[in-house]
Design goal:
The complex is a heterodimer of chains A (about 350) and B (about 350).
Chain A: H1 3-24, H2 32-49, H3 52-65, H4 80-85, E1 94-95, E2 101-102, E3 108-110, E4 132-137, H5 154-171, E5 175-178, H6 188-198, E6 202-209, E7 218-224, H7 230-239, H8 247-257, H9 262-284, E8 289-296, E9 308-315, H10 319-325, H11 328-353
Parallel strand pairs in A: 4-5, 4-6, 6-9, 7-8
Antiparallel strand pairs in A: 1-3, 2-3, 7-9
Chain B: E1 7-13, E2 18-23, E3 28-32, E4 35-38, H1 41-47, E5 52-53, H2 55-59, E6 64-67, E7 70-71, E8 74-75, H3 80-96, E9 108-115, H4 121-131, E10 137-142, H5 143-150, E11 155-162, E12 167-173, E13 182-185, H6 189-203, H7 211-221, E14 232-237, E15 240-245, H8 247-270, H9 277-281, E16 284-287, H10 296-304, E17 312-314, H11 321-332, H12 335-338
The chains are: A alpha/beta (about 350), B alpha/beta (about 350).
Chain lengths: ~350, ~350
């Protein structure tokens, strides 16, 4: 076989491998035994850790679903698709009767999420590791998100970055789940339900910003909380548009969550991610602004049962950032920064606990 | 090998403006990437067809709900009609190549299709969905790679594929190109059309011109550098056919392509290992419909002078280079790989 034929053969194999990777979606790395150990630890600690939310949710499941709907043995999801299919029925919209509260006019009933405020608790004292990361690529399907001057579409960028981040996290030993792994629409309340069903330890929702002042470029990271900033209110309103919740639902959900144990952990995660995003991207994008860690009432963060943040990883309204976002190199850098931020947070948790780190 | 008797391999260059197909049965066709549906019963009666594709659609556009289903070399987002349009376009291309879904019997269709160098993974997934049911197996590669493979410029070479929606640059290093080896620019044929339309409108504000006229003029007269005479076209001014001198606008619009392509070309060369940079500089190939702009190769070669000079040439058949390359890939890929790539 001549040199050119050998080169062709090798190149063709690489092309086929790339296609197979696209076909497969994500190769999530798994640490199944470790996960089971961690699951045991979580169960043991749950009376201390889990504020009324999970307890009441579990009761609701038990009382409404019963044995017939119990997950079969070995149901621990093995892929994103399977994870999605394995969504507990109690978290699926259920036609029918209480227990539960109607969330919208279609008569769909979700478990009641109105809960007593949990006692203040420092989760660092619980020595729990971070094993499973749920990534939430913003928008999808008919919900395009924002669009940029070069014709870039937020829903595509967020999915691309999420898939890259998932690969990086998987390679480093994290279990990874995605709320969507294709161009599909998923309302915000379903995103939260999917993330909860996956049993994620943290949720990172990935978005691309659009700022009226087109000269501004920067990164910012949000965790759940109130805000008086009119720009952030507007941004949250835009991101919350396809929530599936009513205003009354939202108010009720927030009542139980602002005092949640997740608040402090979400802030720490947001700080770790924001630090990595800014320091990493500024090397390729010197005019980048560090727009900081902020609070905002993004609905995707509301109904999740784990520390959750929303990262605005770039500004599509800025021509230069749009040009950078059009390159795979910059999107990869964003993914690396997100993975590094999540890793740094996991390391903080592990170090604080005095146990082995997963990063 | 006997199974291959029942296989037709197809290379497709799915272009924003034109699409090309080359098949192992010898069929080669180019189609304007337009799909149109008659707007009403009268149009349907006149056209005697429920859907028109390609040049026919373009020529009868006044009676059609006309769609150009690709944008920047990718499937357009947002409307079901565009999704249907791309399926119709693909089906039409395959039918021209003798691979019509309804008539192919037990013949397997294996297709290689090119996408812009920096297409997102989600774009590739959408493309797979569009091909579903039309072919049996599908391999997606980047457009400049398909060109490079077809002309065997796989090592120490650069392909610059200038289409309508995107210009794709790719350095070939004897491996399947990575993200770092490729760039996609949105300065391409459509961008030239926009600039040209704007410049003509500024010079002749009372002239009535359409994007289709502008595109036709560009394809016929485009050039950079020295003009070979005056470019005069005819367009209505207040309803009266009038001759317009568009020499300067067409030169300015086309020359707008040179700087971004040259800058990206030099940047990619600078990232090649130092000992191979000269080889790459002397093996730069232009392909794609917009590579036919007269003098573009000379202008890019001039840009190479600042780094020691080089050679820029245009492939023999720029419109088919991508499709022919795709066909070469399709025919070289072993059965064992195709079996994994079910569409």
């Amino acid at each position: 076989m001549g040199r050119i034929d050998r080169t062709k053969r090798r190149i063709l194999q690489q092309a086929v491998q790339e296609n197979l990777a696209t076909l497969r979606g994500l190769p999530p790395a798994r640490l199944a035994p470790a996960r089971r150990r961690w699951r045991g630890a979580l169960l043991a600690a749950s009376p201390l850790l889990v504020p009324g939310v999970l307890v009441i949710m579990a009761l609701v499941w038990a009382s409404t679903v019963g044995d017939s709907a119990a997950p079969p043995e070995g149901r621990t999801p093995q892929s994103t698709t399977q994870i999605r299919n394995a969504l507990p029925e109690a978290l699926e919209p259920r036609p029918g009767k209480p227990p539960g509260t109607p969330l919208h006019s279609l008569g769909v009933v979700y478990p009641d999420l109105t809960l007593p405020h949990p006692p203040t608790l420092d989760p660092a004292t619980l020595a729990l590791g971070i094993r499973k990361v749920v990534l939430d690529p913003g928008h999808g399907g008919d919900d395009l998100g924002t669009t940029g001057p070069l014709g870039l579409v937020e829903k595509q960028l967020t999915l691309d970055i999420a898939l890259r981040t998932a690969e990086l996290l998987g390679a480093r030993g994290f279990e990874v789940g995605l709320t969507r792994d294709a161009d599909t629409f998923l309302p915000l309340n379903r995103r939260a339900a999917v993330a909860n069903a996956m049993g994620g330890d943290v949720l990172v929702s990935i978005h691309v910003n659009w700022i009226p002042n087109r000269w501004v470029r920067g990164v910012e990271t949000y965790w759940l909380g109130p805000t008086d900033d009119p720009f952030i209110k507007e941004l949250a309103a835009a991101e919350n548009r396809s929530s599936g919740y009513s205003l009354a639902d939202f108010r009720r959900l927030l009542e139980g969550i602002y005092a949640d144990v997740r608040k402090e952990e979400s802030r720490r995660l947001a700080e770790a991610v924001q630090t990595e995003l800014y320091s990493s991207l500024a090397r390729l994008n010197p005019a980048l602004q560090d727009r900081g860690v902020k609070t905002a009432p993004f609905l995707v963060l509301v109904a999740t049962e784990m520390p959750a943040i929303l990262a605005e990883v770039s500004c599509l309204s800025n021509d230069e950032e749009a040009r950078l976002l059009a390159t795979g190199k910059y999107r990869r850098r964003i993914a690396e920064a997100l993975a590094a931020g999540i890793g740094a947070y996991a390391q903080q948790r592990a170090t604080g606990a005095g146990s082995e780190g997963s990063w | 090998m006997s199974e291959k008797k029942n296989v037709v391999h197809v290379g497709i260059d799915l272009g924003t403006s034109r699409s090309a197909v080359s098949a192992s049965n010898g069929q080669r066709h180019i189609v304007d990437s337009y799909v149109g549906w008659p707007v009403d019963m009268v149009a349907r009666k006149i056209l005697k067809r429920s859907v028109l594709v390609g040049r026919e659609a373009l020529e009868n556009r006044s009676m059609l709900d006309l769609h150009r289903p690709l944008e920047r070399g990718l499937l357009k987002e947002g409307s079901e009609k565009d999704q249907e349009a791309v399926r119709q376009l693909l089906a039409h291309l395959l039918a021209l190549a003798g691979c019509e879904a309804s008539a192919r019997g037990d013949v397997q269709i294996r297709a290689v299709v090119g996408v812009p160098a920096e297409a997102l993974r989600v774009n590739k997934q959408q493309l797979r969905t569009a091909f579903s049911g039309l072919v049996d197996a599908l391999l997606i590669v980047t457009e400049p790679f398909a060109v490079a493979y077809g002309i065997e410029a796989l090592l120490h070479a650069m392909v610059i594929d200038i289409g309508a929606g995107t210009t794709d640059l790719c350095v070939m290093k004897g491996r399947y190109p990575t993200e770092d080896d490729q760039r996609t620019l949105l300065n391409a044929g459509d961008w030239v059309d926009e600039q040209l339309g704007r410049l003509i409108a500024a010079r002749y504000p009372e002239a009535s011109i359409s994007p289709y006229m502008v595109r036709e003029w560009k394809e016929r007269y485009s050039f950079v550098g020295e003009s070979h005479g005056t470019v005069v076209v005819t367009a209505p001014v207040k309803g009266k056919p009038t001759e317009l001198d568009i020499t300067d606008p067409i030169r300015a619009a086309c020359e707008g392509l040179v700087a971004p392509i040259a800058e990206t070309m030099l940047d990619l060369i600078a990232r090649v290992e130092p000992e191979y940079q000269e080889k790459v500089r002397h093996n730069i190939v232009l392909a794609g419909g917009s590579s036919a702009i007269r003098g573009l190769d000379v202008a890019l070669a001039a840009a190479l002078q600042e780094v020691g000079g080089g050679v820029v040439r245009t492939v023999e058949d720029p419109m088919f280079a991508g499709a022919d390359g795709g066909l070469a890939i399709a025919m070289d890929a072993p059965d064992s790989d195709w079996e994994k790539l079910v569409a």
